[in-house]
């Protein structure tokens, strides 16, 4: 399971709900933030398993941010979410992940 998020967390449920959403269905900003955070944590865990821990706090944040950005781009395009403020969602995800790395370590 993703570091920081277990299967019963909001982020895990948001991830599942976002992936299951039909195209052009309203997906809330909060749901996207949770889903992108979960995806970033999953991929970060895979990265650490394959390459070891990042050398710095900043590198860990950069990896998480990049994965979250990719996920958001893919979901917003695939689901045709035209009513989403993409920049606000990206900011909220980055802030959430930065706080997690600051609190929990990397």
From TrEMBL:
Domain of life: Eukaryota
Protein name: CipC protein
Species for this entry: Auriscalpium vulgare
């Amino acid at each position: 399971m993703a570091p920081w998020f277990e299967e019963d967390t909001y982020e895990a449920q948001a991830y599942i709900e976002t992936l299951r959403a039909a195209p052009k269905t309203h997906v809330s900003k909060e749901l996207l933030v949770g889903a992108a955070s979960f995806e970033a944590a999953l991929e970060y865990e895979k990265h650490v398993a394959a390459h070891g821990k990042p050398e710095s706090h900043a590198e860990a944040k950069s990896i998480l941010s990049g994965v979250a950005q990719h996920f958001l781009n893919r979901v917003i395009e695939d689901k045709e979410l035209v009513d989403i403020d993409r920049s606000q969602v990206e900011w909220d995800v980055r802030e959430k992940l930065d706080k997690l790395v600051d609190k929990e370590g990397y």
